[in-house]
Design a protein that fits this description.
With about 600 residues, this protein is an alpha+beta fold. The protein contains 20 helices and 15 strands. It folds into four domains: about 230 residues, Up-down Bundle (Rhopdopsin 7-helix transmembrane proteins), CATH 1.20.1070; about 100 residues, 2-Layer Sandwich (Beta-Lactamase), CATH 3.30.450.20; about 80 residues; about 140 residues, 2-Layer Sandwich (Heat Shock Protein 90), CATH 3.30.565. Helix 1 crosses helix 2, helix 2 packs parallel to helix 8 and helix 6 packs antiparallel against helix 7. It is rod-shaped, with a radius of gyration of 45 Å. This is PAS domain-containing protein.
């Protein structure tokens, strides 16, 4: 609909301008002087209107180009008015011939072209309207005095036509206007698209008009007529660029540079990875309305901007009171002092995570929170803390156990030297083997602590087949499923089977796999001595507490925390049963285990 309206307005403008030009052409055929006066008066009215708009808003205009050009067009209009009064046939300045209006024309066009260029160099600088006005007044006065005083070069000679000065001046003015057009293109981001387009076209038509004015011999000639039509079109475009736009979008036109800065900050607001939320206090600061959020907030909180704008913080984030976030908003709003908060944990039915906030008060009284979702960082810190704790514990155990093994080896060596009994060599071998086993366990344990390692599908029946031939006992397998794990899955079942053999004295191990709705359950049962009730709850860290069981079951527990879970219970009629729960593989087809 908007596009249709725009197209209609464009068509209407073209039709209107065509009708005006046609009417003026008809007038020119009968009365060229009237035609000339109407065209010049239209350009003068537009120029004065441009000045009045700018002058009345000079204290708030941020776009210095509009300010300087608008003031300048008053002085262009004043010379054009003199040019109109001095035109051949008007009879207002007796004693002067056609040279006078032609000189005034050239002076006005020089002034116009230079103003359009110089105004660009005032952009971004502190400019006083009074200084600009004074400068233009001095220049205009000098031009008018030099023309009426006979100091300005002749531009038209009766009976001969245009002088070389006039012709070359038109070319020079056209060149200056080309510079203005180039600068306008370079600075186009400081203008509204329509303003830029109209101003650019106005300069183009002015250039064409200047070239047309290099050909006429008579001031009533055809090329003079064409040149004035181009001037009419040029000032109509200035009228569209300045006057119409100032009525439709007054602040956007006058604050072009400010709007550009605002656009930069808006783009930054939208592109920031950190969440930015703007809040407006209501109920005397008891609550806050969500005034604006950037796309990062939508992503972090899982909300849509249109669903939360205008809603209260306490409704959108119900636990904002409990976390202290609402109190921090109030504190900043009341005191004006910014606050940085350490990561706080937020959780409600819709979202959960850690947030680190910087909260500020804006000049208009709104409060803005710039925050980072540090959930992943906090999880990593927690994992690192757990890793450090576990490594410290492992280090303690290894030093203790290997120290004991080395003491046993040293003692056995001393006894062997005295008694030469081979049983002490066997003791040494067992102690060495035990130490090597502990070191191997440490290597396996290191793999379990790789929190960043991604899980992949493993088919359990293929895992069990690789293990079946490693042990001298009966292993029965029932059921199959594909679960999410990594290479440490082999160590899980190796440790459970070895635990059944070494500590439970079992000779039969039954493995049953059952696929549940949410996970896969694996029961590893043996017919051994079982696990006493007194240590069932701490069996997975038994090695750490007694120094006898090694790290095997602790490795199992640590790894299963990544895969799912593990627990232990009695087997019927005797023995132990470990119940492992794995995450299901979401695919349907079986996969090869590595």
């Amino acid at each position: 609909m908007n596009q249709n309206n725009t197209d209609f307005r464009k068509d209407s403008d073209i039709i209107f301008l065509a009708v005006v030009i046609a009417g003026l052409y008809i007038i020119s055929l009968d009365n060229f002087l009237l035609f000339h006066s109407l065209v010049e008066l239209f350009s003068i009215v537009v120029a004065v209107a441009f000045f009045l708009i700018v002058w009345n808003r000079r204290n708030i205009i941020e776009n210095n180009y509009i300010l300087a050009a608008g003031i300048g067009y008053l002085f262009i209009a004043s010379i054009d008015l003199l040019h109109t009064f001095a035109y051949k046939g008007m009879g207002i300045f007796p004693g002067y011939d056609t040279n006078l209006p032609t000189q005034l024309w050239i002076a006005a066009r020089y002034l116009e072209s230079l103003i359009l260029v110089v105004s660009f160099f005032l952009m971004g600088k502190k400019v006083k309207a009074s200084n600009v006005t004074t400068t233009y007044l001095i220049i205009t006065t000098i031009l008018i005095v030099s023309i009426f005083g006979g100091y300005f070069p002749d531009s038209y000679i009766e009976g001969a036509g245009l002088t070389s000065f006039k012709i070359y001046s038109e070319y020079l003015i056209a060149s200056i206007l080309l510079v203005a057009l180039t600068l306008l293109h370079q600075k186009r981001s400081n203008f509204l698209p329509n303003v830029y387009k109209y101003l650019a076209l106005a300069i183009v038509f002015t250039i064409i008009g200047e070239l047309a004015f290099t050909f006429y011999i008579s001031v009533y000639g055809f090329s003079n007529l064409v040149g004035h039509f181009f001037k009419l079109i040029s000032f109509y475009l200035i009228y569209k660029a300045v006057i119409v736009t100032s009525l439709d979008k007054p602040y956007e036109m006058l604050f072009g540079e400010l709007n550009q800065e605002r656009k930069k900050y808006t783009d930054l607001f939208r592109a920031m990875k950190n969440g930015v939320a703007v809040f407006e206090p209501v109920d005397n600061g008891e609550d806050f309305l969500i005034k604006d959020i950037n796309p990062a907030v939508e992503k972090i909180e899982g909300v849509k901007k249109e669903d939360v704008i205008g809603k209260k913080v306490t409704l959108t984030f119900p636990n904002s009171r409990e976390t202290g976030f609402l109190d921090n908003l109030r504190k900043v709003w009341n005191t004006g002092d910014p606050i940085h908060t350490e990561p706080i944990h937020y959780c409600d039915s819709e979202r959960e995570g850690w947030r680190e906030n910087d909260i500020y008060k804006l000049a208009n009284g709104d409060v803005v929170a710039v925050y980072e979702d540090v959930t992943e960082k906090k999880n990593t810190q927690r994992q690192q803390a757990q890793l450090t704790k576990e490594l410290q514990t492992v280090n303690q155990i290894l030093r203790h156990d290997i120290s004991n093994d080395l003491s046993a080896i040293s003692m056995s060596v001393d006894i062997f030297r005295n008694k030469r009994d081979d049983k002490y060599l066997d003791m040494i071998k067992r102690a060495v083997k035990k130490s090597i086993s502990r070191i191997n366990e440490m290597g396996m344990f290191e793999k379990t602590l790789d929190f960043e390692k991604k899980l992949k599908p493993f088919q359990l029946s293929k895992v069990f087949e690789k293990l079946r031939g490693k042990y001298d006992l009966k292993i029965s397998i029932e059921g199959d499923a594909t679960v999410m794990a990594d290479e440490v899955i082999y160590s899980i079942f190796e440790n459970l089977i070895e635990n059944s053999i070494k500590h439970g004295k079992a000779d039969i191990v039954d493995i049953k796999v059952q696929e549940k709705e949410d996970d896969v359950e694996v029961r590893v049962s043996d017919n051994g001595t079982g696990i006493p009730d007194s240590i069932k709850k701490k069996v997975f860290d038994e090695g750490f507490s007694t120094g006898k069981g090694g790290m095997g079951l602790y490795i199992v527990k640590t790894t299963m925390n990544r895969y799912g879970s593990i627990q232990v219970e009695d087997n019927d009629p005797h023995g132990a049963c470990f119940i492992l729960r794995f995450k299901k593989y979401p695919g349907k087809e079986n996969v090869k285990s590595e």
